[in-house]
Amino acid sequence: MAVTRLPTAALSLKQFLQRQKVLGIYRNMLRTIREVPDAADQKYLRNWAREEFKRNKNATDPDAIRMMITQANNHLEELQRSLALAR
Amino acid sequence: MAARVLMQCVRSVARPSLRLCSVNLTVRTAAVSNTVSHRSLCFSGDSRRTRWLEQSRVSAANIDVSCRLYGDLPPLTFDTIRDRVLYVLKLYDKINPEKLQASSHFMKDLGLDSLDQVEIIMAMEDEFGFEIPDAEAEKLMTPEEIVQYIADKKDVYE
User: Annotated Gene Ontology MF terms (chain B) (predicted)?
Assistant: First the structure.
């Protein structure tokens, strides 16, 4: 009986969507950080963002991931708001 | 004085161009004929004179149309794009410059992950000065693909 099997590393749809969301947030964060006027601040924020994302890279629980996504969104909005004020 | 002489010369050359009054032309000639614009600042009160200067500006555009004088970047070729892409990648701290080739896959050959790939694409955006949308950015997995995509977007043919 021939059974088609997905590769073991394939993500379910929900996981796939979450992954896309996380990458989208990372990209938006990097774009926002690009607009920070000071170069040293930019470097610091970029390192901070990188560390945060890498630290939680291996989380598997979808609820935990969702919480982290919300947190990241809050940070992003805060950064955007401060940038708008500073402009 | 030079403006008046120039205007007299070109007025005889380019009569039909008087009808061309597009904004582009005046912007172009503003860059070209700086001397004319300096004079025009003094003359701006007089309506007859401003019409005269409009004509000279438009005619001056015609004379200079053979040699373009816009500020622009040098044209891109596949080789320059490839060099720039590889240069940016060599500067990235997580990539070993010796192992880097045009066909090395970020995830399989160079051992990077998707966050690094996002960073790399952002660095490319900074280097080439245009935004790469998310959907297409996540598909670019080798330097060669990046070169192809940029050539696609910037209309670089071979």
Answer: acyl binding; acyl carrier activity
